Amino acid sequence: MNGLHQLFFRRKQPAALGLALGGGFARAMAHIGVLQVLEEEKIPIQYIAGVSAGALVAAAFASGTTPEEIARVGTALRFGDVARWTFSKLGFCCTDGMAKLLARLLKKDKFEDMRIPLAVGATDLQTGNAVLFSGSGDVRLPLRASCAFPGIYQPVRWNRQILTDGAISMEVPASVVRGMGAARVISVCIPHDSGTAEPSNMVEVMSRSMQILQMRTEDSWRKSSDLVIVPDVSAWPWHDFKSSSAMIAAGSDAARKAIPSIRAWMAGVAA
User: Fold this and answer.
1) Using one digit for the tens of pLDDT, what is the confidence trace for 140-168?
2) What's the average model confidence in pLDDT over 211-220?
3) Exposed (0-12), middle (13-18) or buried (19+): which is 90, by Cβ within 10 Å?
4) Is 169 considered catalytic here?
5) What is the DSSP letter of 76?
6) Is the CB of residue 91 less than 8 Å from the CB of residue 81?
7) 165 belongs to the catalytic site
C-alpha cells in the first residue's frame, strides 16, 4: 500500500484516456451512469482515480465489476450499508460497516490485481496533505478512509497517519490521473448545492462548509482536465439513496452529451 510520496506513475501512452471521479455521497450514483455510457460507446479507460464516494465507483470498475453490476448494488443501497452508528468524540459513524458493501462491489481487493490502474485519494488530518494509494496493497482501507466524511465518520488510522475524506484535499483527482499516465483526462464532478436554502441541521452545515471550500479550489483540478462532465443531480439531497436510479440516469444524460467531444479529441490524439 503506497502513500503519495511512494506513488510511481507509468509513462504516458500516446492516446491513453483517464477518468477522475469526485465525491458526492449518494449523488455519486451519477458516476455509474457515466461509466455505462463510456462502456456502451466503447470509450477505453486506461487509468482511473476517485475520492470519497467516487473512489468506491472507481475501485469497483477497476476491479472488473461492470457498470450494470455496480448499478444493481447502488440502487439497493441504503445509509446503513455505508455506515455503522458508533458514537465517539471523533464522529458519529465508523466505516467498518462498509466491509459487506465492498465485498459486493469489488471483484478484486488489491491494487496490483486491478484490471485498470487505480488510485484512491484520502486526506491526512494532521498535515492537510493528500495521501494517494495505488500500485500495490489492499484497497479496502484506502476506500474506507477516502469516504470518511469529517464530523460524521470517524477518521481511519493508517500507520501513523489519521486519514479522512479524500475530497477535502482534492475535489476531483484530475491531476492524479494525469500523473498516472493519461494523455487525456475526463473529470466527473458532482455539482454543489445552490446554497440558497438555509441549513437545517449540523450535517448540512458541515456539508455546505466543505462545498464552499471546494469552490475556492475548483480551478486547480479543472486545469488538469481535458473534459468535465457535470451530471445534473441538484434536485436530490446528498443522502437520497432512494433516488439512485434517477441519479444514474442523470449521469448517463450528461455523458452522452460529452461523447462527440470525446470522440473528436480522441481522433486528434490518434492522428
Assistant:
1) 999 999 999 887 788 899 999 999 999 99
2) 71
3) middle
4) no
5) T
6) no
7) yes
Burial pattern 199-209, b for ≥16 Cβ within 10 A else e, equals eeeeebeebbe
How confident is the model at residue 271, as a pLDDT? 42
170, 221 contact by CB (below 8 A): yes
Lowest mean pLDDT among 2-16, 21-35, 216-230, 233-247: 2-16
Task: Give me the catalytic one of 63, 134, 165, 175.
Answer: 165
What are the tens digits of pLDDT across the range 11-34?
445 579 999 999 988 899 999 999
Residue 255 in this model has a pLDDT that exceeds 70 = yes
